[in-house]
Amino acid sequence: MGSLDVERKTRGLAATDPSGILSPYTYTLRSTGPEDVFVKVICCGICHTDIHQVKNHLGMSNYPMVPGHEVVGEVVEVGSGVTKFTAGDIVGVGCIVGCCGNCQPCKSEIEQYCNKKIWSYNDVYTDGKPTQGGFADAMVVNQNFMVKIPDGMEAEQAAPLLCAGVTVYSPLNHFGLKKSGLRGGILGLGGVGHMGVKIAKAMGHHVTVISSSMKKKEEALDHLGADDYLVSSDSTRMQELVDSLDYIIDTIPVFHPLVPYLSLLKVDGKLILMGVINTPLEFITPLVMLGRKSITGSFVGSMKETEEMLEFCKEKGITSTIEVVKMDYINTALERLEKNDVRYRFVVDVAGSKLDH
């Protein structure tokens, strides 16, 4: 095997312009150091954020871009200063691969809120080289931004937990909502939403799925185990559930009104925003003031929370509902995801795919 202190080439699928179409791309991995780990990618989940990034929806995309931030891989080699991992370990890499280490969020072990955090892709590492994601044969990652996948957890099942899973777990943990007996709402039943149902149910919550149509009712109740299903356009049922929920996890990634959902919250209830939306949302202040309600947000989770979440999912037997695809299907998968045509997370079998150039 080669030395970790040399650059290596790898192959992946990259977007080269805002069309978002991914095509084969060979590039050099960033320089490695004593605390770095060389990882062979096994699989990688597809998140809605990948669409925002490859299509430059947020106006911050740099090309060529290899997306993918729900990465599970096998450790091939470790640097001389690596103490957390050894060759053969199955590990996970999420949205963040670096931070400053000195600010208050970093010192408080919530490094995902560091203003100098380094994204897994579409960013620049400390050596000036662009970061690239998990739709590729290999990655080089600092040991502090990887987690071990628990023994017995399948790689394909673990991948969505590294973003969708911890994105739900983190606010429930932070806002003191892990205790049993609470009543929660999950707004939107996609990749994050379906994990929200499973994790909240495992915490002992009464869970209501809130959707714009009836088409996912059977799925929500019979397959995911939700307790109730609410169609937002059903004014009678919306009125029945006024002041009934302790929290709502809002996963919708497009513009939508907040007023109908704020009315569902109890006094001190929380509307937790998780969808990435680049247009302003609106609400009327009395709905917040008269119930001392909160509109807040949460972004993925810390490395510590990711480890906790993986152990929680292992203990509770929580799995993600996935559709496994090969690398040559990624562009179709992105199109389907944009139409919400997936149940409920695509996971790309990277190791089992061939990248022909």
Walk me through the structure.
It is a single chain. This protein starts with 8 loop residues before the first strand and ends in an 8-residue tail after the last strand. Strands 3, 4, 5, 10, 11, 18 and 19 form a 7-stranded mixed β-sheet that branches. Strands 14-13-12-15-16-17 form a 6-stranded parallel β-sheet, with helices on one face. A two-stranded antiparallel sheet has the order 1-2. It has helices spanning 48-54, 104-107, 155-158, 164-174, 191-202, 217-223, 235-240, 259-262, 285-289, 303-316, 330-338, and strands at 9-15, 22-28, 36-46, 70-78, 90-93, 96-98, 118-119, 123-124, 130-131, 138-142, 147-148, 183-187, 206-211, 228-231, 245-250, 265-273, 294-297, 322-326, 345-349. With 357 residues, the chain is of the alpha/beta class. Strand 15 (245-250), helix 8 (259-262) and strand 16 form a beta-alpha-beta unit. The chain contains 11 helices and 19 strands.
Describe, in short, the structure shown:
The chain has eleven helices and 19 strands. The protein is an alpha/beta fold and 357 residues long. The strands form five sheets. Strands 3, 4, 5, 10, 11, 18 and 19 form a seven-stranded mixed beta sheet that branches.
Q: Fraction of residues in helices?
A: 10-25%
Structural class: alpha/beta
The overall pLDDT, averaged over residues, is: 94
Biggest β-sheet: count, sense, barrel? Answer: 7 strands, mixed
Strand content: 25-35%
Number of helices: 11
Order of helices and strands: EEEHEEEHEEEEEHHEHEHEHEHEHEHEHE
Give the overall shape.
globular
Contiguous uncertain segments of 5+ residues: none
The end-to-end distance, rounded to whole angstroms, is 24 Å
| Rg calculated over all Cα atoms | 20 Å
Total beta-strand segments: 19
